[in-house]
Amino acid sequence: MAHHKEMFKDQNIEIKDDINLSINGKEIIYKYDQVKNKFYTKYLPYTQYDSLLEMARAIAQYSVEFSNVKE
Amino acid sequence: MAIRKDANTLTATERAEFVTAIRSLKAEGIYDQFVLRHANAIMSAIHRCSAFLPWHRRFLFDLERELQRVSGNTNLGIPYWNWPSGGANASMWNADLLGGNGDAGGIVRTGPFRAGQWTVINSSGLPAGPLMRTFGQNGLPTLSTQAQIDQVMAVTPYDTSPWNVNSNPSFRNQLEGWIGPNLHNRGHVWVGGSMLPMTSPNDPVFFMNHCMVDKIWHEWQIRFPNQGYLPTNGGPFGQNLTDPMNNTPSGTIGSRPIDVLDSAALGIVYDDAVITPQPQIPLIIVGANPTQADIGTPGETDVFRFEVPSFGPHTMYTTGPSDTFMTLFGPNDPIIEVTSDDDAGENFNSQIIRNLSAGTYYLRIRLYSPSTTGNYAVGVRSDGTSPSPIPELIINGASINATISAANESDPYRFNITTEDTYTIQTSGTTDTFMSIHGPNSQIPEIASNDDDGVASNALIRRRLAPGEYFVRVRHYSAFGTGAYSIQLTQG
User: Does chain B have fewer CB atoms within 10 Å around its N or its C terminus?
Assistant: First the structure.
């Protein structure tokens, strides 16, 4: 089982045991579609991703729950 | 009545009225309630599912009523984003309506929803920065074309099991964007920024995007009046025709899909709704050479029809290099599914062998993979005037799986008794079967019949039988009923 940790767009992404995803310490619920071989999450309802890390980076960048763009 | 117009055709007065109404709702806090209603819904209950279209139709309806209230204009409708003419240079992105693309950092700096004038919220309702847009920078650089819309407009049925992103064929799934050319999702992804997450109603273009989606559904409903909402029942809770939809409040209209199926009844008028006639379904001549066809776009579905003049065995098949998937509908109704097949033909071709009663049948053909293209040929042949050989029931053998696939159809079986004893013939499954036994050594004399002595609505006959050949006939209890069942013969 691999662990991955990185800072992306100032967000702390962590994937434990290849499956447990958290961003800034918050557990991210996601689903894996075995038919399409894609990952998806409620945070980004219009897209699906080839890898968990790719999805995590998208959440960190686009979800206003995590991104913190200033005017 | 709400008159919904192409956003790019709005007059300056109409633009100002819409913007003022949106900003008024924002000031009242009503607009943010809509953002939260969407953001805090169960995503899998309003997206990637059958209720995607009715949920958002109701969502638009409710916002529209609020816009009418604050504007005092009872005809004010949400403009729709006509994708083929709605690219980055379209007038809807001008500063008097939506404002344009974001700056290098994605922050919208123009128009009434620019930074400093409009603050988005997160799913907790807390301020979360300026509106963001990054046109065409998220993997989908172009908007949907009219040809792509036309392609989706030809897809039936409304939806199909498993009622999610893997449903195919499915008008809903193609319009939503998980298979086929990707219409709705493309709108979100093309705009990018604030249109990507579950708080996407933060960007007012959300409502224009969904208004276009709703317009396409409306036109499809008129084009295919016999293609109703699916599932009517049996789907996940919240998705069936009369289930309450997730996170949809009580209101002047109901919260079920059935409550929002009729746009006209909701007082919705599209300024240029295009009502195109149903496409002519190509006719396959039974016994003729196979008809050449191709799936030119991933997710595309082809439909053919053929005529059966009288009851008899038929083979429906494809040939060619593609991995086809075939579904048979009928008789005389393009939405009553008889059966489907993936690989019963040569290589990865589909093939259905069936006794068919007289009538018009429909073949829907797609490729097994919704992401591939390829050509094929499809044909239908009659396998003679006599029905297929009568299947034999083996004493204490395996069950035979079968289907009453058409109105008035009955399935014959035969079995041989060599030792006089008591034997049990019974059906199983969810179909209400009716069974009769005939013989010995003739299909004519009926010696017993039964409707419901088996489990649930299944038939069961236990009878002492002398040596000889016997025949069993199974039909649906209802003359118009269809369904799958299994039949088994046991000694004792």
Answer: C
| CB-closest option in B47, B121, B130 to A45 | B47
> What crossing angle do the helices spanning B30-39 and B52-71 adopt, rounded to 10°?
170
Neighbour count for residue B22 (Cβ, 10 Å): 23
For residue A33, give how far its alpha carbon lies from the nearest alpha carbon of chain B (Å).
Answer: 9
Q: Do the bridges between strand B268-270 and strand B2-4 make them parallel or antiparallel, or are there none, so unpaired?
A: parallel
Q: Is the pTM here over 0.80, yes or no?
A: no
User: At B33, is the pLDDT very low, low, confident or very high (cuts 50, 70, 90)?
Assistant: very high
- Please tell me the distance from the alpha carbon of residue B397 to that of residue B471, in angstroms, as a whole number: 16
Smallest Cα–Cα separation from B389: which of B353, B361, B358, B439?
A: B353
| From B123, B185, B195, residue closest to A65, measured CB to CB | B123
Distance from CA of A31 to the nearest CA of B (A): 10
Among the partner residues A33, A46, A68, nearest to B188 by beta-carbon distance: A46
Q: How far is CA B332 from the centre of its chain?
A: 20
Model pLDDT for residues B56-71, shown as the tens digit of each residue:
999 999 999 999 999 9
Do A64 and B35 form a contact (C-beta atoms < 8 A)?
no
Residue whose pair of structure tokens reads 């890898």 in the numeric block: A51
Q: Per the CB < 8 Å rule, is B107 touching A71?
A: yes
Measured N-to-C along each axis, helices B205-223 and B146-153 cross at an angle, to the nearest 10 degrees, of 50
Task: Specify the pairing of strand B337-341 against strand B302-308.
Answer: unpaired
| CA B9 centroid distance within chain | 32
Total H helices, total E strands in chain B: 8, 21
- Determine, for residues B166 and A35 on separate chains, whether the beta-carbon distance falls below 8 Å: yes
Minimum-distance CB partner of A43 among B48, B188, B197: B197
Give per-residue pLDDT as tens, B423-473. Answer: 999 999 999 999 999 888 877 778 999 999 999 999 999 999 999 889 999
**Structure ipTM:** 0.93
Flag if B43 and A33 touch (Cβ within 8 Å). Answer: no
Checking B278-283 for CB contacts under 8 A at 24+ apart, the result is B278/B223, B278/B224, B279/B154, B281/B305, B281/B334, B281/B362, B283/B307
Q: Degrees (nearest 5) of the Cα angle B322, B178, B320?
A: 5
Report how far residue B296's alpha carbon sits from residue B299's, in angstroms, rounded to the nearest whole number.
9
B103: DSSP letter: -
Q: Quick one: pLDDT at residue A35?
A: 87
Are B63 and B76 spatial neighbours (Cβ–Cβ below 8 Å)? no
CA distance B126 to chain A (A): 10
State the nearest Cα–Cα gap between B312 and chain A, in angstroms. Answer: 38
Share of chain B above pLDDT 70, in %: 97
Counted across chains A and B, CB pairs separated by less than 8 A come out at 76
Q: What is the pLDDT of residue B383?
A: 83
- Contact list in A for residue B190 (CB cut-off 8 A) is none
Chain B hits for A67, Cβ within 8 Å: 128-129
| H or E stretch covering B121 | strand B119-121
Residue B210: DSSP 8-state = H
